[in-house]
Amino acid sequence: MSSRRSRSRQTSGVSRISDDQIADLVSKLQQLIPEIRSRRSDKVSSSKVLQETCNYIRSLHREVDDLSDRLSELLESTDSDSAQAAIIRSLLM
């Protein structure tokens, strides 16, 4: 354990996550991220896993924004009192 982390633990009195817990969480992330999961090699650095996780989350945000825009456009072209409009509004909320 680094002396900085050890010092931080002593001064703050706050419980910190262990290196084993970090390794376990990185392993779980590695299984969730399609870009990493599709690779043949099991050996991926923690920093690469975190970088790919951030990239994946950004792509999901873009996809959600795009789908919201498309639903909004669809709602504008639909009769506002129709059942279809109600469904679209519920998806946007």
Automatic annotation (TrEMBL):
PROSITE patterns: BHLH. It holds the Pfam family bHLH_ILI. Residues 6-60 form the BHLH domain. Its main location: nucleus. The keyword Acyltransferase does not apply. The keyword Transcription regulation applies. Keywords: Growth regulation, Nucleus, Transcription, Transcription regulation. This is BHLH domain-containing protein. It comes from Penstemon davidsonii.
